[in-house]
Amino acid sequence: MIPMPGGGSFIVIGENIHASRSVKRTGPLITSTSDGRDAIRFIGPDGDEMLLAIPDAIWMGSEFASGRVKHVKSAILAGLAGRKPDAVAARDYVRSLALRQEGAGADYLDLNVDEAAADAATRVAAIRWLVEAVEEVARVPVAIDSSDGDVIEAGLAASRQAAGAPLINSASLERLHVLDVAARYGCPVVLSASGAAMPASIDARVSNAQQIVEAAQARGLPLDTVHVDTLVLPIAVEPEAGAAFLEAVRRLRAIYGSEVHLTGGLSNVSFGLPARRLLNDVFIGMAVEAGADSGVIDPVANDPARVLGQDRTSAAYRLAADVLTGRDAYGGEFLAAYRAGRLTEASPHLTST
To answer: What is the pTM of this model?
Structure first.
């Protein structure tokens, strides 16, 4: 946990061990094995450089052809196939990701295999493999993140819980059965403010959040074990999305005081825009100021200690804050500053990744 300026701690749910994550084929992480196969280059848990050969199912896919490599999915598929030495490298790869997230400050390691395969049986096998691999080295609990209840249950069953009870991500008004799972396993749980459709207003977000908190209480879940997610949407699509999230957080903090955790997938806000690290840094800081004390973030890219100590008087901060809150709708001023190189000059430690 990261101490917050006003007191209390910010709970980091490290997000980057997801089957959806991809890197550029032309980037520094991709190389070739001695027999000419495409491979992912990484530093293993013991500090040695290692190679994970990319499985056929990945390099034969359309995303690979378009220049992207789903690196976590590559490891999962290689691990499930069980053929040495690829299976050993796959296990070491996800272990190295876990150690990086933990070393950067993650309190939970969020694991998601939903894009590992189309069939449910493979996803269930994937979460079991991933939980076991990560827990071999992790000193913090895992978070089981899925839209599939069977995957959540399989992940919980696979967990040894040596570092603590897993976090379930997530329950919603459309998935109340997940609350029953959380009660049965005694796990903390993320409560999404989504309903049958994405709430169109701040009032709807707050109402949905209150309803699912009540449902959690009805099942005996302590309030201090729930993380209420008021939904972060990309501002590139909806300019008011950042402001809506922040206002919903303020209202819920006023309603519940310190009883519940308030969270969200905070890096979602910057999808489709350049200078994502800057935008995410600023938004995480704004979320904390609004009352959030938890967040699904990549602590390697967005160091929480740096985020909470950032200079709020800089030009880069102002430009990012304006686009994040909708004052600079669709980011005209922000994009102009990015193209002119002014964002990098103002904040040299921030990149456009």
So the answer is: 0.94
